[in-house]
Every structure is written in structure tokens, then in C-alpha cells.
Design a protein that fits this description.
Elements (H helix, E strand, L loop, with lengths): L15 H9 L3 H6 L13 H6 L9 H22 L15 H13 L3 H9 L2 H11 L3 H14 L3 H8 L2 H10 L5 H16 L4 H10 L2 H11 L3 H17 L1 H6 L3 H14 L4 H14 L3 H9 L1 H16 L10 H17 L6 H33 L4 H23 L11 H13 L5 H21 L3 H8 L3 H14 L1 H4 L8
Helix pairs in contact: 4-5, 4-7, 5-8, 7-8, 8-11, 11-12, 11-14, 13-16, 14-17, 16-17, 17-20, 19-20, 19-21, 20-23, 20-24, 21-24, 21-26, 22-23, 22-24, 23-24
């Protein structure tokens, strides 16, 4: 949808552009008889009045914004008056929005991305007005635009605090989830995500979500929608919900949610890779909960194919590309560890290929890790002073402690099921990864793969080790060399036959 902001001030007083516009729409005969009047001379324009009409340091007009809001109210009143007898049998698709009003409000929607405009809207209590409009209108487009403006406003800290205290807004937003208009749902999910991601404002929203059927509604959207943008927003929302509240995590540890994730993955895997990553991470978070592990194992036949297909897609390429896929691969490895250890995979040929894929990724990671380590060392040498080196070392030591915690925890140290310890640490680690810090993400993925192969080696399932040993000698040599450095106690197991 293309939206553009309103025209900035051009030096003409308020209303001058409208006058020109009206005159330009006169008949052709009038145009031929007279030309449009010239703008007023600059010396006749009151600059103080002009500056007073500008919102902050922007070029947007206060009068224009307020006039647009008034036109919105008039449009809703007109809509109500025109319902008449049709109110008892409303059109299931809603009514069409006036095109001129739609264009005007779309400009306001774009403007609401500006923090100073949001402050001005807040000053005039525009959020309450938008809420009332949404509650009254029967126009899906009006609802979408109003919720879209509210979602933009929710990007500001103060607005999120106000929204968290507004029960009418919470009730309205959660009620809108029951709708069937994808564009509106896109904006509703965006608004919810903004409010729940902020830990200082999340509690009232989480409480409201748990008290009604919102989780079931969101799961249904994930299961049935074909709108890739909506699926991405809902995936992001689930990612935050699962990571924010233990009750939500337990509630979503069911086969219906896993089926919804699988169906959504089928829908977006070729359209929106970042959505695919989010869905995989949702499954990985489930593997940190005892009930989640049980359900993942129960649904192994549904989950395993999407993990296998993701690895196959990456490893079929001439060059195995890891950069940009670390988060998704971490999720895949964590889930696979749970499934392979707790499920009866048998001697399936896919399992042998799976090990081949993971060993290829390990080999690529080893070379990537070495390359990045060299770049980091060069970066340290280029530091401007001893304080920089000291600061880097402190940060590096902190990271090393976290990585050590993730890679040395034993499965017997936790009351949860096999595999949950490593994925739990990865979940927390990813929340603190700085964007673009490829070296750190690569190190974590390498640690996860190490734990995965150690688990396979020391596990009780001889079939898994047999399938691992069926991989090419070159790949096994890479694994043996890696384990010799990372886990020397387990490196020799590759050369032994388990009975």
C-alpha cells in the first residue's frame, strides 16, 4: 500500500492551497478566462502564525492534523446515519470508505511514525478518539488505518505506558483478533507485539491474553492464514509470548500449536525466510519445557520433515552458507537433539543424511570461526588505547562464561528432559546477541553442534552412532578433530563400536 505524507508548508497561509485546489477544479471555460491567482507576497504572510502551526521541528501542520481527525469523526457519524434499516443485516464485508477521506487518513498514518506528531496526537487525546471510532465503524479500511496509527504510536515509550493502563483499548484490540480482515489483523498483531515486547508494559496485556481465548485465536490464524505478512507478525508475537510468560509456554505446549507452526512454515518457507526462522525458534522454546519436549516427541513425524528440509536446502548448495542463518540453525540443532534422543528414529536413510548435513555445517563453521577470530584479533590491535582493550576483554570474558555455561551443562543436572538444557541457554543467549555480531552467533552454533554430537556419542541408541559412522571419512575426521579440541573425553568414541 502506497502512502505519502501531506504536503509541507509552502509559505501560503492556512487554507490557501485548498482555495487554489478548488479553483483549479473549475470548469474549462473559467480556466480559459482567468488564470489561477498568484500566491500572496511573502512580506504579507505572518511568519509567527505560520511557525505556530508547525508541529515541533517537522513541516507538518497542526491545523491539517486536527482537520483530518474531525473529518474522520464526521465520516463515522455519516456512516451511522446511513445505516438505517440495514443495521439489522449489516454487510459481512463492511462498508466502503470514502476515497478522499481514505487518502487523507493514510497521510496521517504515515505522519504518525514521527515522534513529535505522536506527541501532538497524544496532547489532543487522539488515541481515545481512534478507539471510539474503531468501536463504532463498520468499515474494515477505517479500522485498519486507525489501528495502524495506534500501532505507530505504540512505538513511543510513553504511549505504551498509557496503552497498558487503558482497559478499553486492551479489550478492543483482543476483540479485533476475532475478525477476518487480514490487513486489520496485521496492524492488530503489530500493536500487540510493540506493547508486549516492552517488559515494563507487558504484564496487563499478558494477563488479558491469558484470561480469554486470544492464544487459541492466534493459533488459528497461524494455522489457516495465507497472508505472509500476517503470519510473520503473528510468529513474532508468539516468539515474544513464549519467551515472556511460563504459563503461556505451558499453555502452548500442545499438538494444535505445533500443527499450526508446521502449516505456517509450509505457507511461508519460500516467501519470507525470516518468518521461517521465527517459527523454528518458537519450536525451540517449546523444547525448554518438559511438556513441550513431550509434545515435540509426540509430533516428531510432523516436525522432523521441516527440520530436514531446511538443512537439505542449505546443504544442497555448492557452498554451505551459514551467515544470516545462525539463529534458525541453532533452533534446528536444539530441536533435533530432543527428537533424536527421545524418539525412535530407526535406521531411516534420512537420519544418515541428516548427520551428513550437520557435519557439513560443522566443517563450514570451523573455517568460518577461524576466519572471524582473525578479524577480531585485528580489531583489537586497532583499538585506540588500553581502555579499549580492557573493555573488550571484559566483554569477551563475560561472553566466554555464558558460552561455557551453555556447553558444559550436563543433561543430568536439570530436572527437565534431554536436550532442554542446551536450547534454554541458547534462547537466553540470542536475546543478548548484538545485531551483526556474526562471530558470537557462530560460536554459539558451534557449541550447540558440539553438544549434539556428544549426545549422540554417549547416548544409548547404537543405531544413531552407526548412522553417524556411515558418513564420509573426511567429515568424520573433521568431527573427530573438533571433539578432540572441544570434548577430548568423547573424541575416541567415534573409533569404537558400541554394542
Amino acid at each position: 500500500m502506497s502512502r505519502c505524507g501531506p504536503p509541507p508548508h509552502t509559505g501560503a497561509p492556512a487554507g490557501q492551497q485548498n482555495i487554489v485546489a478548488r479553483r483549479s477544479c473549475s470548469s474549462q471555460r473559467a480556466v480559459e478566462m482567468d488564470r489561477n491567482p498568484s500566491p500572496l507576497p511573502e512580506e504579507l504572510i505572518d511568519q509567527d502564525v505560520l511557525r505556530a502551526d508547525i508541529i515541533g521541528s517537522t513541516v507538518f501542520s497542526k491545523q491539517w492534523v486536527l482537520a483530518s481527525l474531525m473529518n474522520l469523526l464526521k465520516g463515522v457519524e455519516k456512516e451511522s446515519s446511513e445505516k438505517g434499516d440495514d443495521e439489522e443485516n449489516p454487510d459481512s464485508n463492511g462498508i466502503e470508505m470514502d476515497q478522499e477521506l481514505e487518502e487523507e487518513l493514510c497521510k496521517l498514518w504515515d505522519m504518525s511514525a514521527n515522534e513529535e506528531v505522536v506527541a501532538f496526537l497524544h496532547e489532543w487525546k487522539s488515541a481515545d478518539m481512534l478507539i471510539n471510532v474503531v468501536a463504532k465503524t463498520n468499515s474494515p479500511r477505517t479500522t485498519e488505518i486507525c489501528v495502524g496509527i495506534l500501532a505507530n504510536m505504540a512505538c513511543i515509550d510513553q504511549m505504551r505506558k498509557d496503552f497498558a493502563e487503558n482497559q478499553q483499548l486492551r479489550d478492543l484490540v483482543l476483540a479485533l483478533l476475532e475478525g477476518r480482515d487480514p490487513p486489520t489483523l496485521v496492524e492488530v498483531s503489530r500493536l500487540l507485539h510493540a506493547c508486549i515486547t516492552d517488559q515494563t508494559t507487558a504484564k496487563p496485556w499478558l494477563t488479558a491474553i491469558k484470561q480469554n481465548s486470544s492464544l487459541e485465536t492466534l493459533t488459528f490464524i497461524l494455522l489457516s492464514s495465507t497472508n505472509s505478512e500476517l503470519l510473520f507478525n503473528v510468529s513474532c508475537l508468539f516468539d515474544v509470548l513464549l519467551d515472556s510468560d511460563q504459563d503461556v509456554l505451558v499453555s502452548l505446549s500442545n499438538s494444535n500449536f505445533i500443527q499450526a507452526v508446521v502449516e505456517a512454515n509450509k505457507q511461508v518457507r519460500k516467501e519470507k525466510e525470516e518468518c521461517h526462522d521465527m517459527l523454528l525458534h518458537c519450536l525451540q522454546i517449546l523444547s525448554t519445557e518438559q511438556e513441550g519436549v513431550r509434545v515435540l516427541v509426540e509430533c516428531c513425524s510432523k516436525v522432523f520433515p521441516i527440520l530436514y528440509e531446511y538443512l537439505e536446502t542449505i546443504c544442497e548448495e555448492d557452498v554451505v552458507t551459514i551467515i544470516g542463518r545462525e539463529r534458525a540453525l541453532s533452533s534446528v540443532v536444539s530441536i533435533l537433539q530432543v527428537l533424536l534422543v527421545n524418539s525412535d528414529m530407526g535406521d531411516d536413510e534420512q537420519v544418515s543424511k541428516l548427520f551428513k548435513f550437520l557435519l557439513s555445517i560443522l566443517s563450514t563453521l570451523k573455517s568460518t570461526s577461524t576466519s572471524n577470530s582473525t578479524k577480531v584479533a585485528v580489531g583489537i590491535e586497532k583499538s585506540t588505547g588500553p581502555e579499549d582493550k580492557e573493555s573488550y576483554s571484559a566483554q569477551d570474558n563475560g561472553t566466554a562464561k555464558e558460552e561455557n555455561k551453555a556447553t558444559t551443562t550436563d543433561a543430568t543436572d536439570t530436572p527437565k528432559s534431554d536436550g532442554s538444557y542446551s536450547t534454554s541457554n541458547v534462547k537466553n543467549h540470542h536475546d543478548n546477541v548484538k545485531e551483526g555480531d556474526v562471530n558470537e552467533q557462530t560460536t554459539m552454533l558451534l557449541s550447540l553442534l558440539t553438544e549434539f554430537f556428544v549426545e549422540v556419542n554417549q547416548g544409548e541408541k547404537t543405531s544413531l552412532l552407526r548412522q553417524l559412522k556411515s558418513c564420509s571419512p573426511t567429515l568424520l575426521k573433521t568431527l573427530s578433530s573438533h571433539l578432540q579440541d572441544a570434548k577430548p573425553d568423547f573424541a575416541n568414541l567415534l573409533h569404537q563400536d558400541k554394542t
